[in-house]
Design a protein that fits this description.
Distance between the termini: 54 Å
Largest sheet: 6 strands, mixed
Structural class: alpha/beta
Strand order of the largest sheet: 1-2-3-4-5-6
CATH class of the largest domain: Alpha Beta
Number of helices: 15
Number of domains: 3
CATH architecture of the largest domain: 4-Layer Sandwich
Strand content: 15-25%
Radius of gyration: 24 Å
CATH superfamily of the largest domain: Ribonuclease Z/Hydroxyacylglutathione hydrolase-like
């Protein structure tokens, strides 16, 4: 028995190729299906079938594309919100033989109504379950979110509790293989590792270890999760198998460009420039009107600010960096990438030469304290972190707007006021500042070090 995992960076999504003898199956494949085909070829195994543990919301599944390429079935849990057109349904107790492996289906609703887990035994050695693919039901140090059914949150939390009890009856030694790792939008408390066992999680996972159903429900419904606009499109794609192929070619390199012209196109909403360099590079110089999504923010936040048909240009440090970014965007359904730029000019201080370029100012925690001490009436400190972060610790006197909700809240901002933006470290605050400036609010800066710097000051 061999298990090979594949991690989609940014999304922190995990998929698996599981093989025994000459046969294999795939769990929750991503769009770039050649990954699994190449891996199977290197192992000299034939992929027999595909399992989807649930309908995904944060990326386009590659199950339909892989099934079409290899002419193999896809198995999906029952009770999906819509008919999954490319899949066959499988139910609790169904069993599949793949080589010496016995795959047993467990219905585990809660995260979604169609969620399943896959308990696997290596019958060449024992009938005991040795591994379980837990989808978005059970993570390492967390469990699935249950907020996708706004009018049924209590019911779904209760169903997840029952599903977790079903998993808890598996052998303590069974290794869990979840569908997401740390950094995913599908859970907030995942550990920064991708392996664990049922027994370890039962003892140490804050939610999985809860024995009282009512307490579990109360804790789950109090969680704050966010639903990015592009999720709705992903849900539709993942029941119809649409957009099920991905262009793996590199985007076109844009060697000659006029920053002033590109800046005007940004402000006229003709293009969206996505800058994925480091925060410091962006703050030093960038094309005016571009949006910052560097340092791992593309998958987490770009979906809040991009629309289906936006023409996108990526600013990156290299062609490889640009290609990686484009792949992340395409996994989220944003396919209209016109090219990439890697040579943003340095600001010279000459207004004629620097047309279309700008920098982003940083301010210190000490300067923020001075603003508070002087009761500045034309200044606002803006917190763009998640609600649970703010509930944990916040700067008194600051205003809160979650980063993902910034565009829909722009109408409430005063262009005559200076805004200083903060987050946990300054990275998300830089994105927020770029969004505000693109919306015409020019008097904005970023609190360098953000909450970390403020806590050191205190």
């Amino acid at each position: 028995m061999k298990i090979q995992s594949f991690k989609a960076e940014g999304l922190a999504q995990l998929s698996y190729l599981v093989s025994s003898g000459q046969f294999a199956f795939v769990v929750d494949p991503q769009l770039d299906i050649s990954t699994y085909i190449d891996a199977a070829t290197s192992l000299n195994v034939k992929i027999d079938c595909i399992f989807e543990t649930h309908r995904n919301e944060d990326f386009i599944s590659g199950a339909a594309a892989l099934a079409q390429r290899l002419d193999i079935p896809v198995y999906h849990g029952p009770n999906a919100d819509e008919n999954v057109e490319y899949a066959s349904y499988t139910s609790d107790g169904d069993k599949f033989n793949v080589g010496d492996l016995l795959v047993s289906v467990l219905e585990t609703p809660g995260h979604t109504k169609d969620s399943i887990c896959l308990a696997v035994s290596d019958t060449a050695i024992s009938d005991e379950v040795i591994a379980v693919f837990t989808g978005d039901t059970l993570f390492v140090n967390d469990v699935g979110r249950t907020d996708f059914y706004p009018n049924e949150e209590h019911e779904m939390a209760g169903r997840l509790f029952e599903s977790l009890q079903k998993l808890s009856r598996l052998p303590e030694s069974a290794v869990i293989y979840p569908a997401h790792g740390a950094g995913s939008v599908c859970g907030g408390g995942m550990a920064d590792r991708e392996f664990s066992t049922i027994g370890y999680e039962r003892r140490n996972n804050p939610k999985f270890s809860i024995k009282d159903k009512q307490r579990f429900i109360e804790e789950k419904v109090q969680e704050t999760h966010y639903y990015a606009p592009y999720f709705e499109k992903m849900e539709k794609c993942n029941v119809k198998g649409e957009l099920c192929t991905i262009d793996i070619t590199s985007p076109a390199f844009i060697g000659n460009f006029d920053p002033f012209e590109l800046s005007n196109q940004c402000y006229n909403n003709e293009i969206k420039i996505i800058d994925v360099r480091t925060k410091d590079e962006f703050c030093s110089t960038h094309i005016d009107g571009s949006l910052f999504f560097g340092e791992g923010l593309v998958s987490s936040y770009a979906g809040w600010f991009l629309k289906d048909n936006d023409k996108i240009i990526v600013v990156a440090n290299s062609g490889e960096h640009a290609s990686s970014t484009v792949l992340q965007l395409r996994r989220m359904g944003f396919n209209n990438v016109n090219g990439y730029i890697i040579n943003v000019p340095v600001l010279t201080g000459d207004a004629n030469v620097d047309k279309g370029l700008c920098s982003l100012s940083l301010t210190s925690a000490k300067a923020v304290k001075v603003h508070f001490d002087s009761n500045s009436s034309d200044w606002v400190l803006l917190d763009v972190r998640k609600q649970d972060e703010r509930d944990s610790v916040a700067i008194n006197g600051s205003t809160h707007v979650y980063l993902g909700h910034l565009s829909s809240s722009i109408g409430g901002f005063d262009k005559n006021v200076r805004y200083t933006v903060y987050c946990g470290s300054g990275v998300r605050a830089t994105t927020a500042a770029s969004v505000l400036r693109q919306a015409g609010i020019k008097t904005v800066d970023v609190m360098e070090g953000s909450m970390k710097a403020w806590q050191k000051l205190s």
